[in-house]
Amino acid sequence: MSWKKIAGIIGFLIIALLVTVYVVLETFDYNKLKPQVAAMVKRPRGVICTWAAK
Q: Are the C-beta atoms of residues 38 and 49 closer than 8 Å to each other?
């Protein structure tokens, strides 16, 4: 394989990875994690977390 073909494949893989990360971050519902995060913070530290809606 020539170095241009290898560079093209690597470039394509990097772009595909970035697009995948973007799509996952944009479509993930972070509100489902609020109770779990609050429980994890409260358990070891005894602190109560609250989030204000925007």
A: yes
To the question of pTM greater than 0.90 for the whole model, the response is: no
Q: Distance (Å, rounded) from C-alpha 51 to C-alpha 34?
A: 8
Tens-binned pLDDT, residue by residue, of the chain (54 aa): 899 999 999 999 999 999 999 999 999 888 888 888 777 777 666 666 666 665
DSSP 9-49: HHHHHHHHHHHHHHHHHHH--GGGGHHHHHHHHHHHH-PPP
